[in-house]
Amino acid sequence: MEVNGEPHVQTLRDFRDRYLLGHGAGRRLVGIYYRISPPLAGIISKNDTLRMIVRWCLMPCIGAAYLTIHHGPLMTLAVFTILVLLMISLRRLFRARPIFP
Predict the structure, then answer these.
(1) Residue 96 pLDDT greater than 90, yes or no
(2) How far apart are CA 87 and CA 76, in angstroms?
(3) Alpha carbon of 12 to those of 43, 49, 67, 74: distances in Å?
(4) Is residue 81 part of a domain?
(5) CA distance 19 to 73
(6) In terms of residue numbers, what domain contains 60?
(7) Is the residue at 29 inside a domain?
(8) Over 90: is that where the pLDDT of 63 sits?
(9) For 58, which of 11, 12, 85, 101 is 20 to 30 Å away at the CA?
């Protein structure tokens, strides 16, 4: 569901509305975000490189929000746990066997 622009932004809004605003800690996090984001957005919007970096850094958050909205928090936790374990395993594998001996 895309409302008013960028679908990734709408995903984050849906996550905020469904999961964050229903809890005290989530409401505090949203409050902090709304306090600090306008000045940061002003800085980011003036620099193409910084804007690209921020978009790349937000992708895991957007992915987690999407998974949580569509499949629930437990599935999201399972997927991210599997990804972390996979990365740890690959790191150990490549550390044990150098690609270029």
Answers:
(1) no
(2) 17
(3) 21, 22, 11, 18
(4) no
(5) 9
(6) 7-72
(7) yes
(8) yes
(9) 85
